[in-house]
Amino acid sequence: MIQIIDTATVSDFTIFTREDEAKNEEIEKIVEGILENVKKNGDSALYEYCEKFDKCKLSSLQVSEEEIEEAFRETDDYFIETLRQAKENIAAFHSRQVRNNFVLTKEDGIVLGQKITPVERAGLYVPGGTAAYPSTVLMDAIPAQIAGVSEIVMVTPPSPEGKINPAILTAAKIAGVTKIFKVGGAQAIAALAYGTQSIPKVDKIVGPGNIFVATAKKQVYGKVSIDMIAGPSEILVIAEPTCDPANVAADLLSQAEHDKMASAVLITTERAFAEQVAAEIERQLKLLPREEIARTSIDNNGKIFLVDSIKTAVRLSNEIAPEHLEVCVDDPFALLPEIKNAGSIFLGKNVPEALGDYFAGPNHTLPTSGTARFSSPLSVDDFIKKSSFIYYSADALEKSHERIEDFASREGLQAHGKSIGIRFKKF
């Protein structure tokens, strides 16, 4: 059962940054071996891992156009329309993030600027396992498309029958994914990072996954770019006692059902309300198909903290920097300026976190484990590079060359200064 704690300090929230170092060290070694094997042996290693981990013997790694079309035909029209509407919402939001080139002409003979270039090839990891996530396909592929990425490569683990969930393939078709491969786990990250005979090497890898996927992303970073190292999902709800306890409980469980390591936390001001929410959690848990997962999450990582005011709750939230923050109060916009650290903010009593997961438009790939203090949701920016450019005429350089040479000499870098001075016959 979820714990109710009378007072809260930031130290109470170690659940958001928990880490089993011994276990992670073991996983690091396993992943290192997988990466090296795929790097060395390519497709043959992928086939072996598919048979070992997915219990699937494949004849081809790539999903064929026929398989994609068959999945599309199997998907009902209502869900296809839902995916299309979600795509419109996601595209409308992310289109506002597009950056433009700029040129700054300071004076005669000086031109400065910034050039925006999309990465050429992006890799999307879409989890399989206990659930299928077509929403992840939309959230990862659409910003890449808007950024101008020319090739979007998706990897996702197959079923023992060698199939990919039809909803995932349908979402990929609607989102404009270029190629899809039947491979998951750390080996999929290795394939995207190093390339194999079938799977092209990419420039950026995005998408959530289990601890092996997250560890693999961490280990290949530098060889390729990645979006983030995501931990287990988490939700923090700040709720006034005037909220419906059933709604708050349902919102907490929406994240608890993700996996057993997920965290669901409520901060409120009245014990009676907290007890009502706790009772609702127990009632609703029994109705969930994923009760075992959600119950483990609630029992191990679920907390309800009592504080003296909603303002105190916001202050604590800023210290915690949660992945998802629900502000379930009558006037959420009054609190918005005070919220400094959160992956995504859900304002008001009618905005459950699931709205952002699927449909509203902002991205659901978010920083976890307190990293919202310094990082941001996945966006169009993740799929672009910014290059600066400089042009000086000879006359413009002559006006500044003595200052630049002096600057270089003060740093003890004579060759720097000489590269300027030589243009004016000083050497």
Can you give a write-up of this model?
The model has no long low-confidence stretch (mean pLDDT 94). The chain contains 16 helices and 14 strands. The N and C termini lie far apart (79 Å). The protein folds into three domains: 3-17 and 233-373, Rossmann fold (3-Layer(aba) Sandwich); 42-226, Nitrogenase molybdenum iron protein domain (Rossmann fold), CATH 3.40.50.1980; 393-424, no CATH class. By secondary structure, it is of the alpha/beta class.
Essential attributes:
alpha/beta; Rossmann fold; 14 strands; 427 residues; 3 domains
Summarize it.
The protein is α/β, with parallel strands linked by helices and 427 residues long.
Secondary structure: elements and pairs:
Layout (H helix, E strand, L loop, with lengths): L2 E3 L15 H21 L1 H11 L11 H10 L2 H19 L6 E6 L2 E9 L2 E5 L8 H14 L3 E6 L9 H10 L3 E4 L2 H10 L9 E3 L4 H10 L4 E2 L7 E6 L5 H12 L6 E6 L2 H15 L5 H11 L1 E4 L3 H11 L3 E5 L3 H4 L8 E4 L5 H6 L25 E9 L1 H17 L3 H8 L6
Parallel strand pairs: 1-11, 4-5, 4-7, 5-6, 7-8, 9-10, 9-12, 10-11, 12-13
Antiparallel strand pairs: 2-3, 3-14
Helix pairs in contact: 1-2, 1-7, 1-8, 3-6, 4-5, 4-6, 5-6, 7-8, 9-10, 15-16
